[in-house]
Amino acid sequence: GIQVEQSPPDLILQEGANSTLRCNFSDSVNNLQWFHQNPWGQLINLFYIPSGTKQNGRLSATTVATERYSLLYISSSQTTDSGVYFCAVEMNTGNQFYFGTGTSLTVIP
Amino acid sequence: GAGVSQTPSNKVTEKGKYVELRCDPISGHTALYWYRQSLGQGPEFLIYFQGTGAADDSGLPNDRFFAVRPEGSVSTLKIQRTERGDSAVYLCASSLTVAAGVDEQFFGPGTRLTVL
User: Fold this and answer.
1) In 3-state terms, what secondary structure has residue B86?
2) For residues B17 and A94, which has the higher predicted lDDT (pLDDT)?
């Protein structure tokens, strides 16, 4: 099946700092979503972004489907941004998601 | 409802017992998905439904796992003869359809299953 790799695996930031999370995938995809899993385990939708660039407040994402990667930008990080960030991709041949192993983000005051 | 709901939120059972986990998708969503998440890992696909039928069950680990969605809304994941290795968080998601552009998946809070 498709391989989804996220980097870095762990990230510690001072409050107010910016960061970039990366998601590489090994095959063509129909769909890509970014999620934030909060400390209670809830997966929160951040972006539905099979291609192009989107912005939502302090967060933005870019997917370059032809080069098989996506980036999530977090600016002016806050302690509430802590948690695990997952990208998930859906292949052209099916509707199931393949998740990466996540980036664990800790924002310290 | 406002979002995907799952019950129970926690389930503790003994090895060998049978369990049922329930998922209520977002109203009007025709596609429903089940995933399993082990500690420190990303969710792994189990099965998805388009309407009442299981469109892809390739992620079910063995024949002890079964899922139904008889009326195209609520779904139940059934696990027979539970084993300690089945302990995980079971996540349900739904999407409006499976067509490109309207297949954004929304997740429920999960059911944490512990098999003693």
Assistant:
1) helix
2) B17
Taking the C-alpha atoms of residue B71 and residue A51, their distance in angstroms, rounded to an integer, is 35
Mention every residue, 6+ apart, whose C-beta is less than 8 A from residue B14.
Answer: B82, B115, B116
Quote the mean pLDDT of chain B. Answer: 94
Q: pLDDT for A8-43, tens place per residue?
A: 999 999 999 999 999 999 998 888 999 999 988 999
DSSP category for residue B15: T
Nearest-Cα distance to chain A for B87, in Å, is: 15
Say yes or no: A98 contacts chain B, CB-CB below 8 A: yes
Residue A43 Cα, gap to closest chain B Cα (Å): 6
Kindly tell me the sign of the dihedral angle through the C-alpha atoms of B58, B59, B60, B61. positive
pLDDT digits (tens, 9 = 90+) for B85-99: 999 999 999 999 877
Q: Which two tokens stand for residue B69?
A: 């969605």
Question: How many other CB atoms are there within 10 angstroms of residue A54's CB atom?
Answer: 14
